[in-house]
Amino acid sequence: MGIKSNFKFFKDTIWQQGYLPYFKVPSVLVVDERIDELEKHENTWAYFDSDNKRMVILKKHDCLALRLHEYGHWINVCIYFLLETLWEFIWWGCSARELFRKEAK
Fold first, then answer.
1. What are the E-state strand segments in the chain?
2. Partner of 28 at 20 to 30 A CA spacing, among 14, 50, 56, 104?
3. Sheet holding 27-31: strands in order across?
4. Among the listed residues 70, 67, 74, the one whose alpha carbon sits nearest the alpha carbon of residue 51
5. pLDDT at residue number 21
6. pLDDT of residue 1
7. CB 28 within 8 A of CB 67
8. Smallest Cα–Cα separation from 12: which of 100, 88, 99?
9. At 2, is the pLDDT very low, low, confident or very high (cuts 50, 70, 90)?
10. pLDDT (0 to 100) of residue 8
11. Which of 68, 65, 64 has the alpha carbon at shortest distance from 76?
């Protein structure tokens, strides 16, 4: 792969298909009954589902502090993917991997 194709792979595959969706603000689902992770842990009032980009909150505990706490989980995911994007950009986007290519003999 050349520099242009490395950058294209980074942009089209790693960034747009892999990491960009995690920066979308999560939806909020307020439920009356315990579902999913709320059923597994009786002391849990809410959780952030990063795969589905949503927060699930038990209605009787819904408040600003709880929502801010769950948004904090989303911010942590964004920070992680920001660092991961920087790391992959250096490797793929800037073609740093080409410096370490070993040709078959």
1. 27-31, 46-49, 54-58
2. 14
3. 27-31, 54-58, 46-49
4. 74
5. 85
6. 58
7. yes
8. 88
9. low
10. 81
11. 68
Q: How far apart are CA 51 and CA 37, in angstroms?
A: 13
Q: Kindly state the tokens that stand for 22.
A: 């995690």
Q: What percent of the chain has pLDDT over 70?
A: 94
The model's pTM: 0.77
The tokens 């689902």 sit on which residue? 29
Give the Cα separation of 78 and 30 in Å (integer). 23
* Domain residue limits, the chain: 3-98
One-letter identity of residue 54? R
Tokens 């989980």, located at residue? 73
Please give the single-letter amino acid code of residue 59. Answer: K
Looking up tokens 């993917």 gives 81
Question: What spatial distance separates the first Cα and last Cα of the chain, rounded to whole Å?
Answer: 18
H helix or E strand, kind and range, residue 67: helix 64-88
Amino acid letter, residue 88? E
User: Is the CB of residue 54 less than 8 Å from the CB of residue 25?
Assistant: no
The pair of structure tokens assigned to 46 is: 């809410």
- The Cα 26–Cα 55 span in angstroms is 7
